[in-house]
Amino acid sequence: MQTSPDRHEYPAHWEADVVLRDxxxxxxxxxxxxxxxxxxxxxxxxxxxxxxxxxxxxxxRLSAKDVHRFTHHDFVDRVGLAATVGGEFIATxxxxxxxxxxxxxxxxxxxxEVAFLVQDAHQGRGVASALLEHIGAVARERGIRRFAAxxxxxxxxxIKVFTDAGYTQKRxxxxxxxxxxxxxxxxxxxxxxxxxxxQRAEGRSVERLLKPGSVAVVGVGRTPGGVGRSILDNIRxxxxxxxxxxxxxxxxDKEIDGVPAHRxxxxxxxxxxxxxxxxxxxxxxQVVTECGEHGVQGLVVISAGYAESGPEGRERQRELxxxxxxxxxxxxxxxxxxxINTNPxxxxxxxxxxxxxxxGRIGLFAQSGAxxxxxxxxxxxxxxxxxxxxxxxxxxxSGNRADVSGNDVLQYWYDDPDTDVVLMYLESIGNPRKFTxxxxxxxxxxxxxxxxxxxxxxxxxxxxxxxxxHSTVSALLRQAGVIRVNTITELVDTGLLLARQPxxxxxxxxxxxxxxxxxxxxxxxxxxxxxxxxxxxxxxxAASPADFHTxxxxxxxxxxxxxxxxxxxxTVGEGSAGDAALAxxxxxxxxxxxxxxxxxxxxxxxxxxxxxxxxTSTAPQATTPSASHPFRALDRLAAKPAEEAPRNCSRLIxxxxxxxxxxxxxxxxxxxxxxxxxxxxxxxxxxxxxxxEKGAAGLIDGLLTRGQGLTLGTDETCELLGKYxxxxxxxxxxxxxxxxxxxARTLGYPVALKATAPHLRHRADLGGxxxxxxxxxxxxxxxxxxCELFGAPEELRPVVQRMAPRGVDTVVRAxxxxxxxxxxxxxxxxxxxxxxxxxxxxxxxxxDREATSLVRSIRTAxxxxxxxxxxxxxxxxxxxxxxxVSRLVDDHPEVVAVTLEPVVVAPYGLSVLGASVRxxxxxxxxxxxxxxxxxx
Length: 936
Description:
Layout: E1 16-19, E2 25-30, H1 36-44, H2 48-55, H3 64-71, E3 78-85, E4 88-98, E5 111-118, H4 127-141, E6 146-151, H5 156-163, E7 169-174, E8 177-183, H6 188-210, E9 214-218, H7 227-237, E10 243-247, E11 255-256, E12 259-262, E13 274-277, H8 284-294, E14 298-301, H9 311-326, E15 330-332, E16 338-341, E17 348-351, E18 359-366, H10 369-387, E19 392-397, H11 406-415, E20 421-426, H12 432-443, E21 448-452, H13 470-479, E22 483-485, H14 488-500, E23 508-513, H15 516-528, E24 532-533, E25 537-538, H16 545-557, E26 563-568, H17 575-592, E27 598-602, H18 606-614, H19 632-638, E28 655-656, H20 659-679, H21 693-704, E29 710-711, H22 714-722, E30 731-733, H23 737-747, E31 751-755, E32 769-773, H24 776-790, H25 793-796, E33 798-802, E34 808-817, E35 821-828, H26 831-836, E36 839-843, H27 848-856, H28 875-891, E37 895-905, E38 910-912, E39 915-919
Parallel strand pairs: 5-6, 9-10, 9-13, 10-12, 13-14, 14-15, 18-19, 18-20, 20-21, 21-22, 23-24, 23-25, 23-26, 26-27, 27-28
Antiparallel strand pairs: 1-2, 2-3, 3-4, 4-5, 6-8, 7-8, 11-12, 16-17, 16-19, 29-39, 30-33, 31-32, 31-33, 34-35, 34-37, 35-36, 37-38, 37-39
Helix pairs in contact: 6-11, 8-9, 10-14, 10-18, 11-12, 12-13, 14-20, 15-20, 16-17, 17-18, 23-24, 27-28
């Protein structure tokens, strides 16, 4: 690396791994003096046409002067970056700072010329777009605000790179050259372009893993048993449609059970898209090298002995990721359970699951192998009974998720036509800010159901530190449209309903069935879930399938009903034939009104569950008898490969063995449907004419000169909040009785006397607050009583404040979390709300609709709206306050914490009686920078 004294230190933080358009990876890093040979070799592989486009003239080779110029940079005014694969250059970009005359310059000049060169073999992979994002971020860091580029008119590819980037541009044509100038400040359009490219690239990188044309299993034993041999057998038995190879350095035979066998991946003729690695951890580096040199696109590393085993394994895991990325490969694992794709064109079971799950429309992600096994088992078991052919589209178990994570798989599922519902078990969230963004976009298109572990992250998981409680993170996920459930049972229950039934139009639920008791249990469960059940309709135990058909048809046709729960108990003497007839009656009624969801709660009716899920009413198997059970043939049908199973299962009715499980799943569907409707009109972040953003910025800059972390004093807090239209009631210190009396005369009676010592602050329940003091006599008496109860004034730190209109005491907080971002919180003041955790949260910036929902989402919200005859308070003023605080934190990320407590909301207006603000340099935000993979 460069060490010359006239150069800046090597900027290691500019190094990054990126995913390219085709799903492969590349490493971007600064070019140094040590890269001379790499640069010459790279240039020799560039076509004459590309060289002409770069230099505007024939330029067959680089001179020694050129090589020196392109490898010697000061990392301020002259910067070069290279994209590398396998350690070799595939593309370069550089900028040179220029002045207004177009000549080389130094700061404060804020413009630079930029130029690219991409090896022809790698053009069309999105390399130049990724380099532009990174060189732009470097330039902004060095005080450059604008790029200029001169491009030949025939160089359409490079012109497109600039014009598609989304920056504000100027374009001119002079002397046969197109000159482009564009500002480097990110815009809404440039961020949208960047996110769209990120989605395509990361989705494609997962697609290459899940849809390989050829697979090599490395570590296959010569005898049955063992991890590698089991995976090979599972891939073969699932009917994988591509080419399959077995690899073991000890092989002497050319085949293993009919599968071509090789001693090394290098020995395989033809390409290998995916390698499943099941060798001891100490042998994995050699396998990675062989795979990289052979051009393998991705790895599933089953091998254990990495970060889950301690510090030594953690370093081994880091090296594994660095090693694989150097060759442009992505990794699932290590310590992974494997991957499955049931698409009939793929049929891949590269996992330790001995049985391939039934094909269906559910995408399943599990970080834990044990939980993955449990989920696959439940889906498969219920697939023969409750779910029929509603099974899995794709399954990913990420293990230690050293590289590919839930975020990457979400990017794939967003566009996957085979996946309608996404189920995820997450033990940790490595990048909550990005996950929330991707979840919001995915949930707008298809349901996303998540179980999140509440404990600390397992060993082996790289997780960003967050100061937010688990409950707050869960609330933020719900705000993003995530259906957050608590157990894997609820995960499956909810997923099956969403995969098979339409979303409900509202919370109104009709209940029909042949058991009054079961109907009442369902009714009570609906009330517990916040639904609005209609009175249950009891058909009596004598009800026939025709009676059920008629009752369900009427309920679905009723405009006052949004969903129907059918309850059923066994009918004496009917048996399996009766179950089949009832299933057919319910299904035919549901198909006539396809816009409303139908669920069944059954008690000891296994045949009914099977019949409901087995096939549509037009399937001939519904009337085919079996010696032991009329639906055994359908069970066999459901177990057939994907191309033989019926695909029309949109109206298969989910059945549940308990009312609580069915209603809980329905409740989640109702809330999700409501979120979808609200997300279609998210509202806007309002503009306030009285906000002084520039004044606040100047004040913050001046205050931060005092130190890196600063809690503002009372006057400074009031001044900063005032610039955003938030007025705080003055509180004057009262260190003595006479000072208290003088403060009261200044403010005007009536006043409040408060102790602000940390152990008494905001604790009216302890007696540290005296209100409605009408004159000096009452004030002096209260002051004396406080000192007798709690100690000397220097311990109490008393203050005097003018009385505010009576109302409801609330608390408003905002905090910038390094992992989740800026969060706005609201709740009622007092010990009860704190004890119950009754606080609502929204991500900043908050829209007007979100502010409205924030106020109404706490359990104690009725107190704001006239509960039990009290006067409703001014919630409009409260919502405006929330929006102003949101704007302050969003406009100035240096404001890392704001607390307004208490905020007394009266019938008309509100009063902010206490406030604190903390300033600090904001946490780094990688979501606003160029696309990168997590660093290792």
